[in-house]
Amino acid sequence: xxxxxxxxxxxxxxxxxxxxxxxxxxxxxxxxxxxxxxxxxxxxxxxxxxxxxxxxxxxxxxxxxxxxxxxxxxxxxxxxxxxxxxxxxxxxxxxxxxxxxxxxxxxxxxxxxxxxxxxxxxxxxx
Length: 126
Description:
Blueprint: H1 4-20, E1 24-30, E2 40-45, H2 49-66, E3 83-87, E4 91-96, H3 98-104, H4 106-109, H5 116-120
Parallel strand pairs: 2-4
Antiparallel strand pairs: 1-2, 3-4
Helix pairs in contact: 1-2
């Protein structure tokens, strides 16, 4: 069973993976203690449906390494290109177009949740 620190590290790892594959404005929000159904949101803006599918594939490939599993969901409507949600249990990955990201504004909805990437991203010297 994964510990809280393992799950936190996995969420940060997925955030960095999305950055490495050109996900834009990537955030890893710590929601632990704010709700009962997940601990972390990993959010990235995508530039196209092809980019979004590519990022989704990279996340799938990283699951074994992170120890997380995809949780199948029942959908009433087919997936669109605007927002892909990947439920990994304690971590939820959101891949969104700029329009969807602006409209749903998850960061505002979860105002006050710390962005773990802002704490771990190193600033390169100029």
